Amino acid sequence: MRIILMGPPGAGKGTQAKVVAARLEIPAISTGDIFRANVSEGTPLGLEAKRYMDAGDYVPDEVTNGMVRDRIAESDARNGFLLDGYPRTVAQVAELDSMLESSGHAIDAAVVLTVDEDELVQRLLTRAKIEGRADDTEDVIRKRQNVYNEQTAPLLEVYAGRGLLVEVDGMGEVAEVTDRVFAELDRVRGEAAS
Ligand code: AMP
Questions:
Q1: What confidence score (pLDDT) does residue 41 get?
Q2: N vs C: which end of the chain shows fewer Cβ within 10 Å?
Q3: What is the pTM of this model?
Q4: What EC class does the entry list (predicted)?
């Protein structure tokens, strides 16, 4: 399957991406994780990305798109992948469409995790204490929520219009949320098979 996992910062995308992708035996491709790995290795890509990440802004589309294009061309992604945190802008949607078109594939589902706003901020502040991410300070958290609402939330309409949007309640225990994701993906797979 080719799946997009969406949702605001703090919705639990990273956690669910790893569990869901492992169970489907496809790679979880997280643009945030790839950027963070580059930042800690001090690569030119990491140096470029870091200034945007630290400010809570999106890394420019040209940088992000090229990185995803290279990653999904790798052999482990041949039979499917789960994209965590990409696409995040309208321009990225267009680019992903063209990447898929050139390989003759299509997205099967765009899963969005929904979590209420107070819970999101609480989760991110807790994560800040545990993981010490540079972009988990209160100001940057707020900035990232705004950027999400302005630039990424409109993408939900795009995928809804294509009949691919699947909304999953992201509140509660990790395993409960995973069960809800699979209930929806099973439905999508069932519909595709019938
Ligand atoms: P995440 O781990 O998904 O929350 O991403 C952390 C940060 O990496 C974001 O706040 C952005 O600065 C950057 N980033 C991750 N994915 C993207 C993307 N698709 N487009 C632009 N920037 C991104």
A1: 97
A2: C
A3: 0.93
A4: transferase
Peptide bond into 87 cis (omega under 30): yes
Length of the chain: 194
The arithmetic mean of pLDDT across residues 55-63, rounded, is 96
The verdict on the CB of residue 58 being under 6 Å from ligand 1 is yes
Q: Is 71 in the pocket of ligand 1 (CB under 6 A)?
A: no
Domain residue extents for the chain: 2-175
Burial category of 47 from C-beta neighbours within 10 Å (exposed 0-12, middle 13-18, buried 19 and up)? exposed
Which residue has 């992903």 as its token pair? 96
Residue 36 marked as a ligand binder: yes
Q: Rounded to an integer, what distance in angstroms lies between the CA atom of residue 171 and that of residue 119? A: 8
**Atom in ligand 1 nearest the alpha carbon of residue 144:** 10
Give the nearest ligand 1 atom to 86 CA.
19
Protein fold of 2-175? Rossmann fold (3.40.50)
Which strand ranges, in their side-by-side order, compose the sheet holding 109-114?
A: 28-30, 81-84, 2-6, 109-114, 165-169
Whether residue 59 has its Cβ less than 6 Å from ligand 1 = yes
In this prediction, residue 189 carries a pLDDT of 85
Cα 150 to Cα 79, 97, 127, 144: the distances in Å are: 33, 21, 24, 10
